Amino acid sequence: MALALAASLAQADVAVYGKVRQYVNNDEVGTASGVTALTNDTSRLGFRATEKLSNGFVAAAVIETSVL
Q1: In the beta sheet, which residues pair with residue 35?
Q2: What is the pTM of this model?
Q3: Comparing C-alpha atoms, which of 37, 5, 39, 43 is closest to residue 21?
């Protein structure tokens, strides 16, 4: 079934999208030395596909996942 879906999506309009939200955070409490960390804040990657069908119908599929 997955191969049939992939073959049918080959004719569809496919978009790849996403957002990278990473930042460096440096915390320092009192006189202690700071702790630096690279933080991921809701980064994501997605695929969107649409296909025009007969009689004005449109088939759509969206797959989106978080990226750690």
Answers
A1: 27
A2: 0.56
A3: 43
| Separation between Cα atoms, residue 47 and residue 54, nearest integer Å | 23
- Cα 60 from Cα 53, distance rounded (Å): 10
Q: What is the spatial distance between Cα 47 and Cα 6, in angstroms, rounded to a whole number?
A: 13
From the number of C-beta atoms within 10 Å of its C-beta (0-12, 13-18, 19+), residue 10 rates as exposed
CA distances to 20, 28, 32, 46, 67 from 23, in Å: 10, 16, 22, 21, 14
Instruction: Read off the pLDDT of residues 50-67 as tens digits, 9 standing for 90 and up.
Output: 988 888 899 999 999 987
Residue listed under structure tokens 């080959």? 10
Report how far Cα 43 is from the mean position of its chain's Cα atoms. 7
Q: How far apart are CA 59 and CA 31, in angstroms?
A: 59
